[in-house]
Design brief:
The chain is 53% helix and 14% strand. The protein is built from 16 helices and ten strands. The strands form two sheets. An eight-stranded mixed beta sheet has the order 5-2-1-6-7-8-9-10, sandwiched between helices.
């Protein structure tokens, strides 16, 4: 029997706990911050706050105690919002052990340091625990509601140690959840984080009702933008053409379940960001925070990211979405590069 701890009981964390529990040989502990979530799961086997309508197997037990969640855990899945990752691992540090495999399923960047989530985990575990953790990143096109319902999905797990990645693949794969291996952690993580920014832009196009042509162009040029930055950071361009890049980008830019796209739609319709965030009832659209970190990385590596720059202006500087789209469309003409 494998013991799995899932840290974070939002929609995606809950869905991954369900996936793990579909393997009858797994015992799953789900750590939830919100008392409402713990009560809902304990009483009705449903996370009514973040993933309503999806039954959680009895093999999943919920707790707010890190010691209980991590006791005897072999695999620790990190699924908290990116801005909580560092603090959460600091709180967990005293119960982390060298034998544990850490799987980061958070799609974001740390704003202050510009670090990817696996880099944050490495830094905290090495500093507070005194050992180098075994870490993998899980990413790809995967709406939590569909994964929890057992609808087919394919994702990627990345680690420089392919044997470690293969262990995660084996433990979480089933007929509805297919996992591919990759050793390009940088590409997989940046693809998952940066696509959220482009998805907000796609939502802006939808909110402005400027047509499908615009969204198709935005996705294509957005992929070029993401790839430029990822390659500058050491990723392989092929990774960004795969599930963690193009696959996740297309889903998040076009799918009706995309929170980032929904934020963009509301902005395109003229709503203010503060009102939009307040109406999300605790759910997180990672792209709102990732935009600034993406531009920080772009500046560090001298990479041009015109779509991300316009999203930053809309999200944080009050720029009109109409004005931003017009500026993108009237940039000086250039040849279409690969990335």
């Amino acid at each position: 029997m494998s013991r799995v701890a899932v840290i974070g009981a939002g929609a995606w964390g809950t869905a991954l706990a369900i996936v793990a529990a579909r393997n009858a040989e797994h015992q799953v502990k789900l750590w939830a911050f919100e008392a409402e979530v713990r009560q809902s799961i304990s009483s009705s086997r449903v996370n009514s706050l973040f993933l309503p309508g999806c039954c959680i197997p009895s093999a999943v037990s919920v707790t707010n105690d890190f010691r209980e969640a991590l006791a005897d855990a072999e695999i620790v899945v990190s699924v908290m919002p990116s801005h909580h990752c560092r603090r959460t691992f600091e709180h967990m540090a005293q119960w982390l052990l060298p034998r544990m495999i850490f799987v980061s399923a958070t799609k974001g960047l740390e704003n202050e340091t510009l670090l990817r989530m696996t880099e944050v985990i490495h830094e905290i575990v090495e500093r507070y625990c005194g050992f180098a953790p075994k870490v993998a990143a899980l990413s790809g096109p995967s709406f939590a509601k569909e994964v929890a319902a057992g609808k087919p999905a394919a994702v990627t797990v990345a680690s420089p140690d392919l044997n470690l990645a293969a262990r995660v693949q084996k433990e979480f794969s089933d007929p509805s959840f297919r996992i591919y291996l990759n050793d390009d952690v940088t590409g997989v993580e940046l693809g998952g984080a940066l696509k959220n920014v482009i998805a907000i832009a796609a939502g802006v196009c939808a909110g402005l009702e400027i047509g499908d042509n615009a969204v198709a162009a935005l996705i294509t040029r957005g992929l070029a933008e993401i790839t430029r930055l990822a390659v500058a950071c050491g990723a392989r361009p092929q990774t960004l053409a795969g599930l963690a890049g193009m696959g996740d980008l297309v889903l998040t830019c076009t799918g009706s379940l995309s929170r980032n796209r929904s934020v963009g739609e509301a902005l395109g319709r003229g709503n203010q960001l503060k009102e939009i965030i307040a109406g999300m009832h605790g759910m997180v659209a990672e792209g709102v925070l990732t935009t600034s970190a993406a531009l920080g990385l772009a500046k560090k590596h001298d990479v041009e990211m015109p779509i991300t720059e316009q999203m930053q202006s809309i999200l944080h500087d009050g720029k009109s979405p109409h004005h931003a789209i017009r500026e993108l469309m009237t940039r000086p003409g250039k040849a279409e590069d690969r990335f």
